[in-house]
Amino acid sequence: MDFMTLAKNRFSVRNYEEKQIEKEKMDKILKAAHIAPTAKNWQSARIYVVQSEAGISKLRSLTGCAYNAPTVMLIGYEESEQYFNEMEEGISSGQQDASIVATHMMLEAADLGIGSVWVDVFPNTKTAQAFNLPESVKLVCLMPMGYAAEGTKPAPMHETYRPMDEMIKMM
């Protein structure tokens, strides 16, 4: 499958089978994260793979958006390892680095037949504390992941796009 087909066909999955992702496939998803580009290649992103019953239960107590996924990734960045723009104060790469890594994981998962959803609806700091993450690690998103339950379909707005000329401006 070519990239455009993969990107267009991938959709947010919010209902999963109980089946866990096989180690070989998980290794590929994590390798996609590992090779993702980051600012100055400083690799500030951090990924925490939650698969234990206790960990999944803890996540479900923090947010309704962990769904029934057998795996949930906590994706963030290490503050001290992000790039700081020398040309403008307050501009740094941590969120971007974590987002690029998350996107690589999401697309590799889709290529392997594994569904996922990017989740912003969770208490970032409380979640980090619940999992005893270092204070210097800032979570950006959760990514529930697994095999889509039978009958799972894209949300109705999945193929609704803003006109390209509203999004893209040639200068």
TrEMBL record:
Residues 8-60, 66-147 form the Nitroreductase domain. One of its GO terms (molecular function) is oxidoreductase activity. Transmembrane segments: none annotated. Signal peptide: none annotated. Its cofactor is FMN. Keywords: Flavoprotein, FMN, Oxidoreductase. It comes from the Bacteria. InterPro entries: Nitroreductase, Nitroreductase-like. Belongs to the nitroreductase family. PANTHER family: NAD(P)H NITROREDUCTASE YDGI-RELATED (PTHR43673), NITROREDUCTASE (PTHR43673:SF2). This is Nitroreductase.
